[in-house]
Amino acid sequence: MGQAASQIENHIENKREDLGSNLRELEDKVKSVTDWHHQFGNRPLVFLGLAFGGGAVVSSMIGRSSGGRGRVSYNPENRAVGTDASPRTRRPPSPAMQKAYAAWENVQGALIGIAATKVKDYADGIIPGFADQYRQTEAEHKHQV
């Protein structure tokens, strides 16, 4: 009986050492995944895209809320109505400027979409169950609209 108890103790001690080793390995993996310096070293283009997309979002938000320089829409009487209280009379933008504005809005939308997809994919890679929760939230939002 003494030899069986000794074998059981050795087995338990080996499993405890294995578990400790596995926990240290898991801890190292979590540290590397959550360390943005490490992630930047592995994926600099993702971070560049996020920075560019974030800058575009911030600039568009600042541009819309800055004093008298809000977006201007044109009504049929050719009166520009800005975000400030007083309407101003202006000529409508040229067709070329309208195309440039539309192209810039498309670029912003595309960059934001790419950045959002990259963030979603990145979060899915490091957070267990994120993709399932994302799909559930997406489905709930579709039903609300």
Briefly say what this structure is.
By secondary structure, the chain is mainly alpha-helical.
Please indicate the count of domains.
Answer: 2
Residue ranges: pLDDT <50 for 5 or more in a row?
Answer: 66-70
Overall pLDDT confidence:
78
- Give the CA-CA distance, first to last residue: 71 Å
- What is the subunit arrangement here? single chain
Largest sheet: 3 strands, antiparallel
Keywords:
mainly alpha, elongated, 145 residues, 3-stranded antiparallel sheet, 2 domains
Task: Give an overview in words.
- By secondary structure, the chain is mainly alpha-helical.
- The protein has helices spanning 2-34, 36-42, 44-65, 95-126, 130-144; strands spanning 73-74, 79-81, 88-89.
- Helix 2 crosses helix 3 (44-65) and helix 3 (44-65) packs across helix 4.
- The model is unreliable at 66-70 (pLDDT under 50).
